[in-house]
Amino acid sequence: MTVRPIRARHGSMAAVPGLSRWWSSRSDTDRIEIYTRWSFHLTLAGLPFLVLLVTVSAYRSRGTAWDLLLAAAALTTTAACVVVAETGFRRGTVPPGPVAAAVAAGVLTVAAGVAVTEARGEDGVPNPAGPWLVGVVAAAVLVALSVVVPYRPLAALSAVAAVLAAVVSALRGVPVLAAGIVGLSILVALVFFVGAFRFSVWLLDVVREQERARGVQAQLAVAEERLRFARDLHDVMGRNLSAIAVKSQLAEQLVRRGRPEAADEVAAIGALAGSSLAEVREVVRGYRAVDLRSELAGARSVLRAAGIDCTVTGEDAQLSEEAQVVLGWVVREAVTNVLRHGSGGTCTIAVDAGDREVSLTVTNTVAGDVGAWGSGLTGLSERLAAAGGRLSAGRRDGDFVLVGEVPA
Fold it and tell me: Is-above-0.70 flag for pTM?
């Protein structure tokens, strides 16, 4: 016995494999648009049949020429309405030609229909086909125009069609009150159909806008991930490469002097290179953690190796995990800037933990003026802003001061 997998079906289209695959390949937005547009067009395409249905009762033909004129006018109205509606659906600019053609063809259809139905019905009995023909044609034309014409002109045209239907009824001998009811009924029907189709088009626009918003959101997510990667790579490699450069110079001098400490510096360079490689891998994976205490200890060691006297205070402060991570990045960027601008001098790193805010201040006599912030300080400022903090940098009493503040 062979067991066949049960495949998902998509309504009745499962019986048509090609159509089913095509429908399955469309997005939800495309499906909504296809359904809305084609239901719209099929409704307009039914206009000739509605015209014939309205005028077929008690039919006594006035001649083949009138019948052909009525059919041609109905088909012309349908074609013009479909062109106008399709252009509106595609949100293009509708030229005045199709709009004028739709209105003119609609008027011609009404005139021909009224003329054809003039002799229909039994003698002495008013024939109601004429006013309802006005309503059917007006509905098709106004529904097509609803996607390209503002509300007020649509309301005015609906009122004109309703008045015209009432006048046609009155001229056929229908009592004035009944003719008014016919006109009012047609007006209500026109408002309903035009409003329904206008709402459908608006809803389709909303769905399209949401689809575009999702696309933009996905692009922003990709851009943010690229920015994160570039920023993290800069932070990791900036400090570590600066430290490797300093220790390499120190090892070179020790080797030239024949000092045994050279082997220790070379080993430290290898360890820094290994840790840099590990951190780069963590950057790629997106799971890199930063510990403030480790960063402070590393900063003290690297700066002293570069001949910069480093003092750290407040390193035992109890901070939240988020504050430690963000301030750890502040230490990294600050140390990178100090090493980049030379050797000698002093550097003080102070951690001050308050009840509501934690600040980390790096003061040094080595780094130059901040000038235009580079990518490092810009990325650091963005990190602090994302955590609800802020970054400031500049000269104070001849020293360069970098201050990072985050919520406690």
Answer: no
